[in-house]
Each structure stands twice: as structure tokens, then as C-alpha cells.
Amino acid sequence: MSAASTQTYYHELCRLTRERLGGLHSPELLIRSIDFARIESLQMRGEWAEAGKILNKEALALERGGAEFLILATNTMHKLAEVMMQNVDIPLLHIAEATAKCIKEKGLNSPAIMATSFTMEQSFYIDRLVASGLSPIIPNSEDRQTIHRIIYDELCKEVVRPESEALYIQISERLKESGADSLILGCTEVGMLLNNENVSMPVFDTTLIHCEEALNVALA
Questions:
Q1: Total structural domains in the chain?
Q2: Catalytic residue among 6, 146, 156, 187
Q3: Which of 85, 95, 140, 175 could lock 180 by a disulfide, CB 3.0 to 4.6 Å apart?
């Protein structure tokens, strides 16, 4: 939900639309950009109900604005997907379901996940992967803390450090040694450090997958 991931979503949706349709085509979309400092403060205090009210208000505003379906540009806040969609009549394209579908299509089964602590440790996201027939692998406690810290202290502020990239690569290798056959970049900012070039197993960037699926839905 940071500005960094919002920019990535917009850039990728524009790029994909140009590739698919050519010429001067660009996506018709509405964006509600939220002050992430407010959301982060509610997360850290565990005030998820209040955060849910904010998301619901914004979802209703997008529907009134003419949106035909919704994408939530954050993995972590899918914790509040059901709350966000209360009294909203247009559908939500869930990021975890889109990601699981993509992994299954590649014939893989045991994805590791690198994301915020909320996404890695709580059931709202992992359960979606399991329900899709996957067997997700979670980093150890120390690695989870490192991943989370870098996301909030650096990536959400658009700070990209070589030493943090090296740490993320090391964590991905440990996950591979633990039996992972692929890696889910389960936070919309993790792709700022990891990709198929520096990870030694197939990478599934949830941001890119979400954008691809959103365009599929829009064009259909």
C-alpha cells in the first residue's frame, strides 16, 4: 500500500496494455492512493478494524466512480479483504488466488514466501495458498524479522541497498535448501530486490501476476 508499490502497479499496467493492444493504448483505471503512514501505524497497533473501515470507504468510492472490479495493491492488507468488500457489489481480484493459479499452471507445489511478518505468519494468505493445493514454506523466525524490517524501513521508502539484496538472496537460498521449488515475492515491494535473475528457483512476483490477471479480466 506504499507509494512505491502503487507506482509499480501503474507502470506495469501501462506496459502490459501497450504490449497487448499496441499503439497509444493505455489502461482505463481509477486509483485511490492512501497515506501509508496512517495504515502502518494501525498495523503496528493491531487496530485492524479501523484499517478495514478505511479500505471499505475507499472501495465504495471506487465503485461509485465507475470501477468494474477491484485490485488491492498490497498483499498484507488482503487480511481485510472481506471487511473491505462489505456492501461493495463489484468483485475483488484476490492477489493470493491469482498467484496460486500461476504457480499451479507451472506444475510447482512448494513455494516459499517472502513477505511482511503479517503475511508470512497469519492465516489469511497462507490458507488461500493451501486451499489451492499448494504446500507453502515459511522462512525461519530470524529471517522473517529481516525480511519485514527491510520492507518497512527501506523498500516502502524506495530505498534499495545492495546489502539488503544480498540478505534477501541468502534467505531465498536457505528456503530452497528447506525444500522450496519456487519463491513467492509476497509483498508488492520485494520485487525491488529479487527477481528471476538473482534467485536460483522460479520466482513469482505477486505484483506482476496481479497486474497480468487484472488486464486479463479487464480485456475479457
A1: 2
A2: 187
A3: 175
